[in-house]
């Protein structure tokens, strides 16, 4: 981010690499949410190569980019659809306001453009705006939107939607879910119920579980990943709001810890 760049520039203006500058760099990286382990790995690697030598802020940024790439590259993967199982069930989970519905809309557009037939399922049965938002995306991508009245049982909706997706021979079923705080037991129980219902119809479903994470969340995102991974079997991440934060480094910390 621009803030991270500015902070590094301020530290490494015509300076030799010594313990003080390394400590300042480590503090900057931790503040950017890269995590203590990643920050220490970067500063240790930098020290082993350049300790006591002149170094510029540009060289530090290039070195950092290389080290971050080593963390992200092994877990960076394109979204793959296993069309041996149709519909390919994609469940999108996360806390309130993290961008689930918008993510589903954008995914449906990409799938539509690639020639796949999709179905959108308005599983956030607590929020009228989410249902209306999905209907707009459905019109854009010629995708049916399956919804129920506000307050309906989301697991029952999942069952009906899957049945309809099979009948209509849809390639992909994209299901939204209600925003839930990871510490609200009853809402996490509901998510488990949705997954149980889907697995009764297809033991391999859901095939993709995406967790949307607001990049401004910072270190709390690690806790979200851990709990949603345990409950829902999250196997992919969508980072949102990266354009408005200096704290996108949390993605690196998550990749390092969870290999996602």
TrEMBL record:
Database matches in Gene3D superfamilies: P-loop containing nucleotide triphosphate hydrolases (3.40.50.300), Signal recognition particle SRP54, nucleotide-binding domain (1.20.120.140)
The keyword Oxidoreductase is annotated on this UniProt entry: no
UniProt-recorded Gene Ontology molecular function terms: GTP binding; GTPase activity; signal recognition particle binding
Cellular component GO terms, alphabetical: cytoplasm; plasma membrane
Primary localization: membrane
Subcellular localization, as worded in the UniProt entry: Cell membrane
One of the GO biological process terms: SRP-dependent cotranslational protein targeting to membrane
Family according to the record: Belongs to the GTP-binding SRP family.
Record's protein name: Uncharacterized protein
Organism: Cyprideis torosa
């Amino acid at each position: 981010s621009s803030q991270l760049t500015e902070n590094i520039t301020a530290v490494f203006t015509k300076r030799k690499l010594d313990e003080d500058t390394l400590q300042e760099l480590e503090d900057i990286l931790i503040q950017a949410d890269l995590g203590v382990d990643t920050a220490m790995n970067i500063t240790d690697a930098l020290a082993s190569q350049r300790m006591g030598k002149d170094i510029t802020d540009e060289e530090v940024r290039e070195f950092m980019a290389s080290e971050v790439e080593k963390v992200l590259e092994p877990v960076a993967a394109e979204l793959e659809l296993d069309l041996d199982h149709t519909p390919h069930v994609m469940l999108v989970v996360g806390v309130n306001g993290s961008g689930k519905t918008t993510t589903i809309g954008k995914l449906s557009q990409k799938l539509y453009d690639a020639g796949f037939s999709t179905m959108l399922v308005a599983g956030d049965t607590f929020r009228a705006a989410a249902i209306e938002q999905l209907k707009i995306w459905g019109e854009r991508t010629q995708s049916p939107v399956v919804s129920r009245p506000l307050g309906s049982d989301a697991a029952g909706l999942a069952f009906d939607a899957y049945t309809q997706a099979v009948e209509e021979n849809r390639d992909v079923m994209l299901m939204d879910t209600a925003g839930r705080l990871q510490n609200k037991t009853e809402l996490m129980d509901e998510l488990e119920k949705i997954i149980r219902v889907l697995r009764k119809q297809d033991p391999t479903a859901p095939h993709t579980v995406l967790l949307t994470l607001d990049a401004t969340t910072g270190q709390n995102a690690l806790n979200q990943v851990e709990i949603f991974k345990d409950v829902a079997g999250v196997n992919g991440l969508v980072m949102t709001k990266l354009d408005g934060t200096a704290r996108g480094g949390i993605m690196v910390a998550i990749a390092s810890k969870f290999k996602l």
